[in-house]
Design a protein that fits this description.
This protein is mainly β. The chain is 7% helix and 40% strand.
């Protein structure tokens, strides 16, 4: 089921009833029914918005109905383009889909024919409310440049807007997710500019996904309207899930249900809270051949300060946690926790891990008293489904087919 159900403007349900039951004449409402030479009344066409209506909301549905005939053609044209629409099965009603452009004028042209074959043509116009300002998507991820277009089964869809959104319902309803393998999912607002999508469970392996943001003309707040439509296509790769324990000091990598790598590790030494590795469902956020690491909260000249070059790192949080090569702790890997919070592995294992990890692969760590916060990097899976839905405006839905 498509989640981007168009929000009807106030009174839309009443307007639909009026279109079906009314045959009164007026501006944009068609002419009164008159008898044709063959004994059939002329088809009477009704159009809403009314002729010459102004300041029409961009999400208003254009409704065209006929009595005493069927519609043969309906167009709604503006300078910025046409509005698509759908004709009812019996040919008596047409309604638009999508949103109109703010501050634009549209002409509605309808051709109807009565049972005797007589054609009735009706033309009306209306103009939409002007936008004080516009909004667009500032960042859209996954992307070719930041994550690659083949990602792990834990990968969220992440959208950041360039303006604060106050009408979250209108925007969220126009964010469509399509998938070759259907999933149950929901959007989640982290703040007025940031909304992310994740499935209830990890993505099925090898799923093709398309995200369509139908935001042109969509109201984002008072006087704020979407500038354009945008979309992304990406693919979920094989299912690879890495699990590690700060108690057993080992990482196990399973791909499509089969163990492909066992790696001794050394986690955070603890003592100080910042030196614990966080427990929870992390995601691979970046793969960095070289990373310069510095001591958190400690400056040059202070006790405990360090700055070092580390190779083959996979970032798993925003608090400075990586799975990385640590030749200096090989003797402790598999036996003791001696790091400042990162997951240390041998150079050979780090090289294998960075080359076999996709952005969005889950890396699940257990055994530490320090828990990964949902907002620490991509800690999306730290919230259960009920918690995730708490910050959704239109709740959960099943993805549309791709």
């Amino acid at each position: 089921m498509r989640q981007a159900i168009r929000r009807s403007s106030p009174g839309a349900g009443l307007l639909a009833v009026v279109l079906v039951t009314s045959c009164s004449a007026g501006s944009g409402a068609g002419a009164p029914a008159t008898a044709s030479p063959m004994g059939y009344a002329d088809a009477a066409v009704t159009v809403l918005p009314a002729d010459k209506a102004g300041r029409v909301p961009t999400d208003t549905t254009v409704l065209v109905a006929v009595r005493g005939g069927v519609l043969k053609k309906v167009t709604v044209k503006g300078r910025e383009g046409s509005l698509p629409g759908v004709l009812s099965a019996d040919g008596t009603q047409w309604r638009s889909r999508g949103t109109a452009t703010p501050g634009a004028s549209y002409q509605v042209s309808a051709t109807a024919v009565n049972p005797g074959g007589k054609v009735t043509e009706t033309t009306t116009s209306f103009s939409t409310v002007k936008a004080d300002k516009s909004f667009t998507i500032a960042t859209f991820s996954p992307s070719r440049d930041t994550t690659g277009l083949t990602v792990g089964v834990g990968m969220p869809v992440m959208i950041t807007f360039d303006q604060p959104i106050t009408d979250r319902v209108a925007v969220e309803r126009n964010l469509l997710v399509r998938a070759s393998k259907p999933v149950f999912g929901a959007w989640h607002w982290f703040d007025d500019k940031t909304v992310h999508f994740r499935p209830r469970e990890f993505w099925p392996a090898h799923t093709k996904v398309r995200v369509e943001a139908h935001l042109a003309g969509v109201r984002g707040g008072d006087g704020l309207y979407g500038k354009r439509n945008q979309s992304i296509d990406f693919k979920i790769g094989r299912s690879q899930i890495t699990r590690g324990s700060t108690g057993s000091h080992h990482l196990t990598v399973r791909r499509d249900g089969k163990t492909v790598r066992e790696m001794p590790m050394s986690a955070g030494q603890g003592g100080v809270w910042k030196y614990y590795t966080t427990s929870g469902v992390h995601l691979a956020m970046s793969r960095e051949p070289v990373t310069i690491m510095t001591s958190p909260g400690i400056g040059p000249g202070q006790a405990g300060y360090y700055q070092m070059t580390v190779y083959n790192t996979v970032r798993i949080s925003n608090s400075g946690e990586y799975v990385h090569s640590a030749p200096w702790s090989v003797g402790s890997q598999g036996y003791a926790n001696v790091s400042h919070g990162c997951v240390n592995v041998s150079p050979e294992n780090a090289s294998w891990f960075i080359n076999n990890t996709l952005i969005g692969d889950p890396i699940i760590i257990t055994g530490s008293p320090r828990v990964l916060e949902p907002t620490n990097g991509w800690g999306h899976w730290q919230e259960n489904w009920k918690q995730w839905l708490k910050w959704s405006s239109v709740k959960h839905f099943s993805t549309d087919p791709l």
